[in-house]
Design goal:
Layout lengths: L1 H17 L2 E3 L1 E4 L9 E6 L4 E7 L8 E4 L2 E5 L4 E7 L2 E5 L8 E3 L5 E3 L6 E5 L14 E6 L7 E4 L1 E4 L8
């Protein structure tokens, strides 16, 4: 009887430890069109979903946050939030990129800082030209593409308290 209880307890601990926090991200910015925009993973090919801030849309892509990684489960693969050449994307090619955390006020941080996120309109690094559409801004970390309009942004859990006055 104790053996069965031990197995059941171990299974419950494993199940409860495996559950990731479900999150959505929104944008904070000094630019009106960006502030409050939802964050979406838009399909760019069989292996990638690039992240975009989309103005006027508030049902952001639902993500899992667990063990300092951010992911979304696709039909065949788990796509992890990555940072390939500065572009924030969801991909299964590289595996999990750890180092993500949230500040006390809900700001997404990578390697301890939330100061290096940018949203760019008409990005020269957007192969399917989503960022040419009104209200679509490609998201970057620690990288600003040439010949494009970019603004510094904060990415925040959508249930985090607002710091706006």
């Amino acid at each position: 009887m104790n053996f069965l209880t031990s197995i059941a307890t171990t299974a419950l601990i494993m199940i409860s430890g495996a559950s990731a926090e479900k999150i959505q991200l929104d944008v904070r910015s000094e630019i009106d069109e960006l502030s409050g925009a939802g964050v979406f993973g838009l399909h760019e090919g069989p292996t990638d979903y690039y992240l975009f801030a989309v103005y006027g849309k508030h049902n952001s892509t639902k993500l899992d946050f667990d063990n300092n990684t951010i992911s979304v489960h696709g039909s065949e693969h788990t796509f992890y939030l990555g940072n390939s050449v500065g572009e924030l994307d969801l991909t299964f090619l590289t595996g999990p990129l750890s180092g993500y955390s949230f500040s006390d006020d809900g700001l997404l941080q990578l390697n301890g800082t939330s100061d290096k996120f940018y949203a760019c309109y008409n990005s020269t690094e957007d192969p399917t030209y989503y960022s040419d559409q009104a209200g679509y801004y490609q998201l970057f970390y620690d990288h600003i593409p040439r010949d494009t309009f970019c603004a510094k942004v904060e990415l925040v859990k959508d249930d985090a308290p607002s710091t706006a006055a």
